[in-house]
Amino acid sequence: MSLQPSPSTPRDDLKERVRDAVDITDVVGSYIALRRQGKAMVGLCPWHEDSRPSFQVNQERQTYRCWVCDIGGDVFNFLMRMEKVEFREALEQLADRAGITIPKGRGGLAADDKAALWKALSWAADRFHDCLRSHPEAGPARAYLADRGLTPATIERFRLGFAPQSWDWLLRQAAVSGISATDLLRTGLAVERQGRSGHYDRFRGRVMFPIRDPQGRCVAFGGRVLPGPDADPAKYINSPETPLFSKSSMLYGLDTAREAMTQSRRAIVVEGYTDCLAARQAGIDDVVAVLGTALGERHAKLLRRYADRIVLVLDGDDAGRRRANEILDVLLAEPIDVRIARMPAGVDPCEFVLGQGRAAFEALVDNAGDPLEYRMDEALAALAPDAGDDAALASIESVLKALAAVSPRSPLSPSQRRLREDQVLGRLSRRFGLSRDVLRGRMLELRSSSASADEASPATPRPLPRLPAWDREVIEVLVGVPDSAGLIVREVGAAGLESREARAVLQAAERLHGEGRPVALPDLLLEIDDPALQSLLVAVDETSAERGPIDPHERINHLEDALRRRSAERQAHASARTLKTSRLDSRSEAELLERLVAERRAAQGMADPKDG
């Protein structure tokens, strides 16, 4: 991995503005539970099997470190590791969190372009909502929503709407409202005509559900066709992928469910918009819906910010069972507790909540089953009484694969995970007459092969380099006393250090100092792209802080003394070489010998007797 900062890294105050606008404890706390311990916040490390809190967040320095993994850094580095994203995406996520717009010229979509798209989507949401309330064609849509049991208050709260059947209803209104057809096209609200110029509305004759990002901004729509003999066979259609919308990383209703999830530490996931709305209407606020796709890894990572448990509520039909099996391996691999709640056959969550009430739905969620038990029940139920060995082995393999997929960072303790494994293996052993040791051996093989197939994670613990004593002294002073940067750059320089890691740090400090920018730990962490170097800097800072507060003037004086001794030592080596290799007269030799003695004393920090 390169030790040099990327030449394309922007060198203005944008990164500093974003860093200063967010608190690392808030960001880290949205992923793992933190508690105060002295001046630091501590929690269980998300990157190794941690039973004692070894993960520490330093709010004053705005850094984090895991003492077991030897991993550390700043808020950008943490988000990059957690979400497995590049710096650019981490910067954008934190900028959005802080309400900071990223100016043009940064790659991706410019801030004013995003603003134009958000404006077009918000305008469209208002038009659809007004249409539902008053348009002559919207009667069947109002009747459909009433039949689903949704009240006017719910319709108003979630700004549901209606798109008339006309091919250009929205486009015609946009033309007189200052919204360009290009912006409607870029947001997915309009579609280019094939074979001729012009556009047409994507959504026609559908009940409209605005989809909002976690910040509450409308980014897309879901459209539900009205029931009828001539209805479009595509029951639901969603906006296409756009610069603002990705259905694999967004959930319907998340913007209004985040606070409730944070309080309950639970996320209930349903499959339909009206399922979600019925639960909300009943007062169950920690419910969200997927957007026409299976719940995936990115969804799980998103929900982990707010909840410790995901309860997946599935329809009780065959399709619901198939969807559960499709996503279980993905969810089990995430460090979050997953549960499966099954609806009675032929009933969806909307009908269940409206028909039986909040208490019955809460009871169903509270009794949601273990996903491994669910997988095993499904595998065994699918086996015919006369099934052959191949079918039986396939069922066994599917259960062991799910068991092997369970994340080692599961919220369950190691003993709880072992007990859970034993229960599943015991059932398989009794059902198929195989020994537990054989089953466990195969499970471990699957787990091992899965781990070896994964690319090395940036969070994989690796030992930090041991710096030579002088290199460490210089880096400790540089990090602990930022005002020393000028002295270190001038008197030490990167060439004066032995290890390549320390040289890379000092080169970053030289760049910052040369540009008149601060040279402190947060600034060095922003200037250096290498995660290993960032971890090294945080480790040096934390280890130095453990020795207690230091007097900056005393530390600089100590460094200056060390510099003088090192300079005298180099001069003494040069004098000694001259004595050995040169032919000198007796007087010159005596003078050089006297100078060598003085240099040796200076190198040892001893005063010259003549100065006494």
The domain count comes to 5
Q: What is the strand tally?
A: 15
Helix content, binned percent? 40-55%
Number of helices: 25
CATH topology group of the largest domain = DNA primase DNAg catalytic core, N-terminal domain
Low-confidence stretches: 1-12, 453-462
What is the distance, rounded to the nearest whole angstrom, between the alpha carbons of the first and last residues? Answer: 53 Å
Mean pLDDT: 80
CATH homology superfamily name of the largest domain: DNA primase, catalytic core, N-terminal domain
Strand line-up of the largest beta sheet: 1-2-3-4-5
Relative strand content? 5-15%
Structural class, from secondary structure content?
alpha+beta
CATH architecture of the largest domain: Alpha-Beta Complex
Q: Under the CATH scheme, which class of the largest domain?
A: Alpha Beta
Shape by Cα distribution:
globular
Sketch the major β-sheet.
Answer: 5 strands, antiparallel
Radius of gyration using CA atoms only: 32 Å
Task: Give the key terms.
DNA Primase, Chain A, 612 residues, 15 strands, DNA primase DNAg catalytic core, N-terminal domain, disordered N terminus
Walkthrough of the structure:
- The protein is built from 25 helices and 15 strands.
- Residues 1-12 and 453-462 have low confidence and may be disordered.
- The protein has 612 residues and is α+β, with helices and mostly antiparallel strands.
- It folds into 5 domains: 14-98, Alpha-Beta Complex (DNA Primase, Chain A); 109-244, DNA primase DNAg catalytic core, N-terminal domain (Alpha-Beta Complex), CATH 3.90.980; 246-367, Dna Topoisomerase Vi A Subunit, Chain: A, domain 2 (3-Layer(aba) Sandwich), CATH 3.40.1360; 373-453, no CATH class; 558-611.
- The longest helix is centred in the last third of the chain and has 30 residues, at 552-581.
